[in-house]
Design goal:
Shape: elongated
Radius of gyration: 25 Å
Number of strands: 11
Structural class: mainly beta
CATH topology: Immunoglobulin-like
Largest sheet: 5 strands, antiparallel
Order of helices and strands: EEEEEEEEEEEH
Helix content: 10-25%
Length: 161
Amino acid sequence: MCPIRVHWHVKLNYKDYWRAKVAITNFNYRLNYTQWTLVIQHPNLNNVTQLFSFDYKPLVSYGSINDTGMFYGMKYYNDLLMEAGPLGNVQSEVLFQKDQKAFTLKQGWAFPRKVYFNGDECAMPPPDSYPHLPNSAHVSVPVMPKTIATSVLLLMVMVVA
């Protein structure tokens, strides 16, 4: 039950990198947020390569495992969520290096596990509700055999007539 909406959008999938867009929208019409913080738990946060308009600090909690990070606005740039509604938002893109052993876009892996805004835990949808990529594409019947069958049928009708 966060007073904000965090939109995490998998934007691009490169060979060695992938990019996600993070947008935070203020829906609390009674409060403006100054010096906000967003804590995200995601298995690929140990491979953050570049952040474009937020600041980032890893929160190392289990030795060498880094799956939690803190994002916050840049001072005098986007550290204020002043307006409520769709116009009251800040956004950034995060570039991750792919860990070929763990990287997948299946079953919601590319989305955060937990999200906290200013210390409040935000409700996340269950992993089964994330969109799934199809296992295979629909195979269409080739056009050529249909064309040949139609031509043979027309020839037979013409020969009989």
